[in-house]
Amino acid sequence: MARTLQIEQESFPIAGSFTISRGSKTAADVICVTLRQGGKAGRGECVPYGRYGETLAGVRDTIEAARVVIELGGGRADLLGLMPAGAARNAVDCALWDLEAKMSGVRAADRLGATHTSPLVTAYTLSLAAPEEMERAARAASHRPVLKIKVGGAADDEARIRAVASGAPNSRIILDANEGWNSDNIVRHMDIAAECGIALIEQPLPAGRDELLAHIARPIPVCADESLHLTADLDHLVGRYDAVNIKLDKTGGLTEALLLRDRARELGFQIMVGCMVGTSLAMAPAVLLAQGAQFVDLDGPLLLARDREPGLTYDGSTVFTPEPELWG
Question: Which domains occur in the chain, in start order?
Answer without folding.
Answer: 3-106 (3.30.390.10), 120-319 (3.20.20.120)
